[in-house]
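The freezer alarm interrupted the setup, so I double-checked each line after restarting. Inputs confirmed:
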Amino acid sequence: MTRIWNLALAAGVIGLVAVPLLPGVGGGKAFLGTDDQAKDAIKDASPGYEPWTEPVWEPPSGEVQTLLFTTQAAVGAGVLGYVLGYFRGRKARAGGADG
Amino acid sequence: MHIMEGYLPPAHAAGWWLVSGPVLAYSGWAVGRALRRRPQDKFLLAASAAYMFTLSALKLPSLTGSCSHPTGVGLGAVLFGWRPMVLIAAVVLLFQAVLLAHGGLTTLGANLFAMGVAGALVARGVFALAGRIGVPFRPAVFLAAALGDLVTYLVTAAQLALAFPDPEGGVGVSLAKFLGVFAVTQVPLAVAEGLLTVLVLNVLAAEDREELKELGVIREGGHA
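Predicted 3D structure, all chains:
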């Protein structure tokens, strides 16, 4: 039962993220980040506002930025997988390896 | 989300730091105390932090035709309460501010309040309330994670509206505009985060029922 639930949940997550990308649904939309849209909204409300500080460091290119975002996601996924594997192994050692 | 570096006027940036700073210090102290009492929790806490790390790196497309990312606060807030989430959120925000020019150091106080403090408090509060009025475990986790995600963006919109009121309509008009940017985009993503959090908790509960029971997350004999 839980397995069916989990498959349905995974399908729901993938669907919610994938459907906007289908042609005809989000077709022609830019899929910009909301951060950039917020910047525009700030410019509308306060046309004279200038940011008073700059980021301490910026990734030199989109590729490097992608690398760092991917690293962040990969480290998280790795740790999560490690902990799940640890729990599974611990349960198996304890003799409750039925699930 | 994440208000960009320099995009909050100095007084606002400092004000949000004044609010979030002490909460962050308390969070650090509370995590230390909790792990001294229950060192066995460190794996589950690491998993919660890892979940947040991963989710906040993923910018997902939304039905509105723009992209935003989930927060990942819900899982840890359901398992451990809001306290540790503030510290974990601060680490995530610091990483993104320093290495990704995403968010910023001056705006970290405001962003930490939105994601770590408000997001985690709402997630935990919703989970507790749902349990009390008899909502089953899975729907309660879903509501906690989805609403914790959504409220983060509501708070971000409010923070920007306070800092940049509309020249004619004031804070209200400005709030509607920022909500239009953040909240609408976030609704489908919050639903996705809610579903994913239930999935991850299902998997965790399958492998480690005892610890979840000890933490009071699932009740004896209850479904998980």
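Quick read of the result. Chain B has a mean pLDDT of 94.
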